[in-house]
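Slides due. Your pick:
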Amino acid sequence: MAVLDYVRVNRKFTHVCCRSIVILLLLLPYIQLSNVRAQGFNEKAVADFYKGKTVTLTVGFDPGGGYDIAARIVAKHLGKHIPGNPNIIVSNRPGGGSLVAANLVYTTLAQDGTQVVDFHPQMLLQQAQGREGIKFDGLKYHWLASLNAGSTSCAVHVETGVNHLDQIKGAVGKVVTMGVEAPGSGITDGTAVIRAALGLKFRMIYGYNGQRPIVNAVLSREVDGICSSWDSFTSTLKNLFEPKQLVRMLVINEPEVPKHPWLKDAVAAQAAAPDDTTRRLLRVVDGPRAISYPFAVGPKVPRERVLALQEGFEKMLKDQTFISDYEKTGRSYEPKNWKEVTEVVHDLLTMDDKTKKALEEALKRKEAP
């Protein structure tokens, strides 16, 4: 009886201790890596390994796209920032929205620091949803850096007469058609979650093959609008605003609306969310956009080489010649180092059950609002 009384009295203490142990175990790989980092790495040993070798950046998309272009700029500049100055090349392994590349580098290619992957971070959200065919674990990848960040933003054609988000909410709100791809893409998932989170009258028209076909459908008035990354609107989609404004921005998935003339009528989705769970849902769905163009190496790569690659990427991200070349692509430059990317990935893949359930419900394929 005395033992039972002790357990009963100390149940809360036991629960806290157990929870602390679980959290510690989850963070242990990062703690260990940080300890190694504090001790530095043997630069000569790393240089001896990389000297005369070729490092391959495996890109999950065809040549000529955004991920390929970003990887080729990295390949041009990264070698000089790694001990031993290895040659850097790009290998394109498209398929499954970059799933082929993500699986390949994790399971098959050499785990010695000569194979780096650049895949779409939307694959991480699909891992969180338990998608079939995923053979990697984002929590075990060693993250090196990402080059950009974005937020889902939604716009409708000015001819719809919709000037504010309030016009497409509630029982009497106007229904607008939004072009989307297949379920699982950033455009589709972002549209679906913003619709669910804010109760918007979006009728989702599925089946478009990429951002540009959706934009063309908006311009031809086949559909009313599109949700894409704010970074895309300010770069590749500038023609929607200049020289003549053809669409109106209604919402951006941020805690507050950035200061920009195209956003003067827009609403900040996270500020408009009705509760904390919904805000968490909005943050989760845009987690992949927060680490656009990410780079990683497999889980079995020796730690010294991981550290050398992470340090090399950090130096490259500050290299003005690299920044200049990257900005020539028209994309904004909002890089994250390995630690910042790791935190985003960890947050995305350890979401609580309540948020996961809300995400599953929001992403169920349905056209009607």
User: Anything to note?
Assistant: The mean pLDDT is 89.
